[in-house]
Design a protein that fits this description.
It is a single chain. The chain is mainly beta and about 80 residues long. It has one domain (about 5-79). It has strands at about 5, 20-25, 35, 45-50, 55-65, 75-79. The strands form 2 sheets. Strands 3-4-5-6 form a 4-stranded antiparallel beta sheet, with no helix packed on it. The radius of gyration is 13 Å and the shape is elongated. The chain starts with a strand and ends with a strand.
Length: about 80
């Protein structure tokens, strides 16, 4: 499986070089698609699917940040 890179979501900290990318070597439950939404400036919601973008949802990860700079995570919820 190829390595997946999730780059920063813009507006985050990271200084002049920009946000540090996150590398994922495997996805949960055999997922082959990951999507993201940004409902509010302090939240990111990632969803994992099998069968591509229209496939079966296998997990959702919600990341809540302390503030809009996204330097500090408040909590993470996996469903």
């Amino acid at each position: 499986m190829p390595r997946i890179v999730i780059s920063g979501s813009g507006g985050g900290g990271g200084g002049s070089s920009g946000p540090t990318p996150t590398f994922i070597d495997s996805l949960p439950f055999g997922a082959d698609f990951v999507g993201a939404t940004y409902p509010v400036v302090t939240q990111e919601v990632y969803f994992y699917r099998t069968g591509g973008s229209g496939g079966t949802l296998v997990q959702t990860a919600t990341v809540n940040y302390v503030d809009a700079f996204k330097d500090n995570i408040l909590n993470v919820t996996l469903v």
